Amino acid sequence: MNIRGIRVIVLITVVTILVMVGIFLFISGYNAISHSETTVTWKNGDTLVNTVFYKPHLEEDQIVFGEYLPYGKVWKTSDKEPAIFSTNKNLVVDGSYLKAGNYTLWSIPMKDSWKIMFNTKEYDLTEDFIEENAYDPDFDALVIQRPVTKNYAPLEELTMYFTSAFDQHILIIAWQETAVHIPFTFAE
Question: Which end of the chain has less Cβ packing within 10 Å, N or C?
Fold first, then answer.
């Protein structure tokens, strides 16, 4: 066999392997998602509140709530690993006290409302982190239920941001046409 024949065999072998890998990934539902970490900070005087979360990138026209994220299931309010909520001062969140500290932010999205959990457990965030098995309600410092509002300017990516009006401050979690407002004030 000559060099040209060997090259043809190697080329056919490589193409066959690539096709087989592609078929396997397609059948297994593999979706190459790039995760982008985002930090949002709210500051007022010496009070600092942060959220850190990962934005999942979905296929175009994919419905998030009720499909990609089924209603009634615990979600880490982020992609890749749970969102982090940090505050250096005690807060009153939706009428309930939240001590200064670092929390993982979990939620259970439902059609008309969300349950939001501020959790104190330090989770093992290795690559084998599995959301369904990780959340531990025994470490919830605060659980609130907030209504869903319509986001009239649909957002293609998961977004979190802060806004303020007078002495009321709000963390907004929004994605596509869904928004949830989490009000907070300073604890006295």
Answer: C
How far from each other are the two terminal CA atoms of the chain, in whole angstroms? Answer: 85
Q: Is the CB of residue 77 less than 8 Å from the CB of residue 106?
A: yes
Same domain, 99 and 11: no
What Rg, from alpha-carbon coordinates, does the chain have? Answer: 22
The strand ranges marked E within the chain are 36-44, 47-55, 83-87, 91-93, 96-98, 101-109, 113-119, 140-165, 168-186
Q: What global pTM score does this model have?
A: 0.76
Instruction: Give the structural domain span for 166.
Output: 34-186
Number of structural domains in the chain: 2
pLDDT 10s digits, 53-79 = 777 767 777 788 888 889 999 988 888
The half-sphere exposure of 140 on its side-chain side, counting CA atoms within 13 A, is 13
Side by side, the strands of the sheet bearing 36-44 are: 36-44, 47-55, 83-87, 101-109, 113-119, 140-165, 168-186, 91-93, 96-98
pLDDT of residue 15: 45
